[in-house]
């Protein structure tokens, strides 16, 4: 198993998504002797946002890029190579203001690239993902109960976005593990964490 862990929380010691990701990955490692693990921490070290030069370079074939263009795509190329290396993804994605952290959005803007992670056919106007054959789990803490299907679920732009953007590049098996109600009292918070932990341990046994 080749696993890429992507952490996007700006918190470290108090991060629920980081703590549960660590437990889940440890369980996977114990059951897979051929386990290989890389971490991309965009929460503490976010990639640069695309710029006008980045965008221009992205839409040119490699042989037409200047040295400056090739250089500005270096970080994106490295992140894409890392993504394509993995066959499993674990994403720690705390919900910030009903969506994904801006650090994760910057990462996704770097890896969703034409002819690298998706193609476009101008004749049929269709897109095709290139990052196929992978599975992903997203661990998603939130302040309240914004789980899709609940009364506040329509304010959850995090889960649908993750499924859509990962599916767009070919990662269609996406499991969302919610950890709601993290602004509630301690007993409720810990109940939600325990439920998510049990869910993750069950997934680790079958993933």
From TrEMBL:
Record-linked Gene3D superfamilies: 3.40.50.360
Entry binding sites for FMN: 9, 15-17, 95-98
Entry keyword Flavoprotein: yes
Flavodoxin-like fold domain sequence ranges: 1-196
A molecular function GO annotation: electron transfer activity
Cofactor(s) needed: FMN
Reactions that this protein is recorded to catalyse: 2 a quinone + NADH + H(+) = 2 a 1,4-benzosemiquinone + NAD(+); N,N-dimethyl-1,4-phenylenediamine + anthranilate + 2 NAD(+) = 2-(4-dimethylaminophenyl)diazenylbenzoate + 2 NADH + 2 H(+)
Entry keywords, A to Z: Flavoprotein, FMN, NAD, Oxidoreductase
Co-factor: note: Binds 1 FMN per subunit.
Protein EC: 1.6.5.-, 1.7.1.17
Region forming the signal peptide: none
Subunit description: Homodimer.
Annotated function: Also exhibits azoreductase activity. Catalyzes the reductive cleavage of the azo bond in aromatic azo compounds to the corresponding amines.
Similarity comment: Belongs to the azoreductase type 1 family.
Name of the featured protein: FMN dependent NADH:quinone oxidoreductase
Gene for this chain: azoR
């Amino acid at each position: 198993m080749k696993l890429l862990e992507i952490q996007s929380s700006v918190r470290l010691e108090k991060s629920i998504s980081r703590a549960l990701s660590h437990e889940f990955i440890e369980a996977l490692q114990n059951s897979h002797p051929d386990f290989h693990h890389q971490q991309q921490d965009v929460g503490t070290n976010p990639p640069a946002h695309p710029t006008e030069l980045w965008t221009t370079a992205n839409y040119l074939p490699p042989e037409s890029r200047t040295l400056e263009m090739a250089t500005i795509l270096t970080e994106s190329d490295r992140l894409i190579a890392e993504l394509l290396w993995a066959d499993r993804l674990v994403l720690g994605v705390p919900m910030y203001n009903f969506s994904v952290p801006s650090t994760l959005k910057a990462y996704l803007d770097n890896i969703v690239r034409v002819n690298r992670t998706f193609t476009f056919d101008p004749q049929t106007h269709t897109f095709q993902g290139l990052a196929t054959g992978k599975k992903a789990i997203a661990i998603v803490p939130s302040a309240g109960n914004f789980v899709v299907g609940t009364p506040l679920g329509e304010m959850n732009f995090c889960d649908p976005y993750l499924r859509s953007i990962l599916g767009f590049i070919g990662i269609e098996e996406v499991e969302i593990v919610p950890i709601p109600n993290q602004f509630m009292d301690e007993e409720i918070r810990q109940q939600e964490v325990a439920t998510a932990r049990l869910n993750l341990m069950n997934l680790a046994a079958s993933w």
